[in-house]
Amino acid sequence: MTKRTLHRLSARAVETAPAGRHADGGGLYLSVDAEGRKRWVMLYQRAGRRVEMGLGGAGQTGVSLANARKVAARAREQLQNDLDPLEMRRAARRAARPALTFGTCATDYIAAHRAEWKNPKHIEQWTSTLETYTAPFWDLPVDRIGTQDILEILKPIWATKAETASRLRGRIEKVLDAARVQGLRQGENPARWRGHLDALLARPSKRERGHHEAMDYAAVGAFLAKLKDQSGIAARALEFAILTAARSGEVRLAPWGEFDLEAATWRVPALRMKMKREHRVPLSPRAVEILKDMLPHATRQDGSIDPTALVFPSAQRSKPLSDMTLTAILRRMNLTATPHGFRASFRTWAGERTSFPAELAEAALAHAAGDATVQAYARGDLFDRRRELMVAWADYLARTAAPAAASNVVELRAS
Predict the structure, then answer these.
(1) From CA 248, how far away is CA 239, in angstroms rounded?
(2) b/e for 320-342, b at 16 or more Cβ within 10 A?
(3) What is the pLDDT of residue 161?
(4) Fewest beta carbons less than 10 Å away: which of 11, 131, 349, 389?
(5) By C-alpha distance, which of 349, 339, 346, 342 is closest to 364?
(6) Is the per-residue pLDDT at 404 higher than 70?
(7) Which carries the bigger pLDDT value, residue 230 or residue 240?
(8) What are the pLDDT digits (tens) for 129-182?
(9) Taking a C-beta distance cutoff of 8 angstroms, is the pair 355, 377 a contact?
(10) 95: pLDDT confidence band, cut at 50, 70 and 90?
(11) pTM of the entire structure?
(12) Closest CA to 150 of 117, 176, 125
């Protein structure tokens, strides 16, 4: 009798098979390990190498002999059509898997690398730049992002915001590389510069950082009057930043635990300061009023305030506002000034319209004034004098809120 080439095993043989590999024919094998665990495997040759494809466990709780034979028959048919059964199965699984969006991949990338980014500002910049500029494809499946998608967001800022555009391109490239490594996309990285985008865009200019555009200090009061008519947390954050002459990042990332409303003081820890030194900020009455308006956002059910909650949260509450959100307010009001530029407005006002000493204004901006010798002797932070200065700044802005009032202003002079 001729020996069968297919269907050599029986159900009984599968149940009683000893350790080893038992052929059913046509590349289908029952594999039994030393502990008696059984599984089906399909062996075949592909491009000169032997491939082993697992088909699942065997036995009473696993894949039946009949079903294993069906899968094996389909694999043999694919091989006859010059298709790799294992690659076909992987492709089918990828197609069945819900497509991850670029936004999800970007968020996962930032979370995975957060530990190596010790500067909180760096983490916030990664998040804000990607969320802001990649909004057109943030919710698209990551495997659908192409070169044209990248160009549409880079071209508008490539010449005008060269540094931002270059960093943005690099961050997108890293997110897409991570997606490719995870098998979420195939082929060329559309954000790659060398040998790809360098053929479509001019080489990024290596220019010096420019100054942030500032508003004339005489116009800031009238601007604040209009800003008060703007609703929303971002408008209050911008107003608070102007009143305190603080950097926007210091305001946007500030938790309630840094504030003492009774003492009208804001204590920014060294970790969050550019100069890595603690900075105390005296708060004017209007600044305290803004904070009190923001209290409901951090009030717990028992009436206490969550010290870790952000004073000026985004719509997601647990995340801070982005710097672009504050800039967007200015653009909606048809202004070219930047949030950071108001620090220059404050400094110019202090120098030109008051007799407060220069080192006081520099201390208010958390700048290191003078050379190393001067700094060594400047042990205090001039806090009480700075409170006079910041109250004078708030009073000036209030008195110049109406354009016509500016000509009648009498400046407060340091005593």
Answers:
(1) 10
(2) bbbbebbbebbeeeebebbbbbb
(3) 80
(4) 11
(5) 346
(6) no
(7) 240
(8) 898 889 889 989 998 999 999 999 999 888 878 888 888 999 999 999 999 998
(9) no
(10) low
(11) 0.50
(12) 176
**Which amino acid, 402?**
A
* DSSP SS3 for 297: helix
User: What number does CATH give the domain 102-199?
Assistant: 1.10.150.130
Question: In the prediction, which pLDDT does 368 show?
Answer: 63
pLDDT at 381: 65
Read off the pLDDT of each residue in 296-324 and give the average, rounded to a whole number. 87
Block residue for tokens 């202090």: 350
Instruction: Report the alpha-carbon angle 231-232-237, nearest 5.
Output: 115
**Residue 226's pLDDT is what?**
94
Q: Say how many C-beta atoms besides its own lie within 10 A of residue 221's C-beta.
A: 21
Domain limits of the chain?
11-96, 102-199, 217-408
Cα–Cα distance, 81 to 94 (Å, whole number)? 21
Residues 6+ apart with CB under 8 A from 19: 32, 33, 34, 36
Does domain 217-408 bear CATH number 1.10.443.10? Answer: yes
Q: What's the rounded Cα separation, in Å, for the pair 391 and 367?
A: 19
